[in-house]
Amino acid sequence: MPEDDIGLEARLDEQESFEPPAAFVEQANVSEEIHEAFEQNWPAEWERAANLLSWNSEWDQVLDDDNEPFYEWFVGGELNASHNCLDRHLDDRGDEVAIEWIGEDDDRRSYTYSELHEEVNAVAAALRELGVEADDVVTLYLPMIPELPVAMLACARLGAPHSVVFAGFSANALAERMDAADSGTLVTCDGYYRRGDPLDHLQKAREGLASVDGDVTTVVVDRLGEDAPSEVGAEHVFGDLRDRHAGATVEPVSRDAEDMLFLMYTSGTTGKPKGVKHTTGGYLSYVAWTSHAVLDIKPEDTYWCAADIGWITGHSYIVYGPLALGTTTVMYEGTPDYPHKGRLWELVEEYGVTQLYTAPTAIRSFMKWGAEYPAEYDRSSLRLLGTVGEPINPRAWKWYYKHIGDESCPVVDTWWQTETGGMMITTLPGVDRMKPGSAGPPLPGVSADVVDSRGHPVEAGQAGHLVVNRPWPGMLRTLYQNDERFLDEYWQTYSNPDRDEWVYFPEDGAKLDDDGYLTILGRVDDVINVSGHRIGTMEVESAIVGVEGVAEAAVVGGEHDITGEAVYAYVITADGQPETESFREAIVEAVETDIGPFARPSAVVFTPELPKTRSGKIMRRLLEDIANGDELGNTSTLRNPDVVHDIETAVGEE
Ligand code: WT7
Q: Which single residue of 138, 392, 403, 558 has CA 20 to 30 Å from 347?
């Protein structure tokens, strides 16, 4: 099949590869035999992952695939996630630090495992007093403050699934997620600092609550004290509740392996966000295992994942994975260039950070700022570097390897998604050769392939759609209360139920290299990836067409040197609506109000028409080409070919 059969072009082959550094190999948690072990003994080998945890009762069956694709893992097993992240470490590691928190105003807090256990118990007791019971969904709308993981673990202790809503989301987005999850409890805060300025978070939460159906019990963390722009009113105060329950013990509720641990909403092609459901046994085993095998976490490490807990990366690799393994996890509230551009490296030196896991967009910023910043600090404690969230260009990979890792740390480029729960495609550090730009082979036990539009495997070197053709313990179980959409979105495209073939489609493009390595080419659905944040174009479009004076809008992703992609909005104004700067601003504001500032368009282009096929379909690919200043593909199928030139001119003027 021609390479562009499904609209993808393979990227230039990157031949260069690197051996795992010898010193790392000697101490790595896993070795070569692991690939073979999983091949020989699948799915039973997945017990390796489950065995990293403490179970109240052992599973009877590793994988139940009777009702595909509704797989179940570690069936019959019982456990509690909070027990696994806290209680079981108390004897050996009670006095070791669980969380090192660095606040934006250089506020510092350390919680030992004993202290974190105490906090979590007190908060669990408080939530229980407020009426939270097993299976109630608790919404956590909090920034990067220690109360967030404390509340997550308190929920887990009670068997109440949490639904964390990233603090950068708007009031509307909060309300939409609370309603979708039927959540009657909210934990939020009065505000937080960004670059030294206090932000009014409570105001946003209240605005959201105003449109939530049903009664909501609200708890507010007092983060800003006197700096708080809004005062806590009728809400419960987190600190008071905790103090009142100080010293309480709450017995962890024993949960079935398949019971929901949490929900996380993520964007897809259609308007409404998807409520991804993760379970207690499979998810926790999976993130503990990948933290062990890929991040090489050992209890004595000081490990830093510089993501936000409001997204899946933080759930899996700031909170659950590292704490399940009893290590020290660093939680950083601020931005990497505040108060100065050497901030991360200063903290690496100060805390003796052993692993750093961050996003390509951050690495490209570090590159831009210059190697002199990291060079100023002692980074010799670093043993491993990781990246996640978007494709990393080979240049950024090599810069990271050289200027941060001093060519002595393996770099793991980990492909995965909210839906997969944890890492899926990556080299194993200390085992596999690394090729900049290529994520690597699927993890042991994971089976992935690249297929053409009919689902047939492509030949090496070709581009196609990435598929996963075996279940794995960390997989989403369904979309919350929407099995049908779960089947439609992920399974329908490439599965063949008649032949009992179930194939998961992550909606990414990929290229299969000769050596079995996979190079990820990015989303093939209508999702834009800005700084590793997943933004649904339909969600942005629906925010824009809600603005009075907008007749029609199309949103696409254009390339961006730092953020990977940027949001481009093409807008047709209604008759009589002047195309002014202030109207542009109103459009941007609408996106901020509906979704959040992270989704704001970087360009709003007014155009008299959108390029459409004769059947009336908007040609997004053409709009992307225009955004990127690329040569345009075939425009002969357009109903209105002349419009292209007009739009190009409009972009030029932008
Ligand atoms: C999408 C998932 C995984 C946690 C953070 C994002 C892209 C993720 C990589 C990578 C190339 C990547 C994919 C994926 N992506 N990691 N290493 N190389 N692309 O989670 O918000 O669910 O987004 O991020 O396109 O589908 P998410």
A: 392
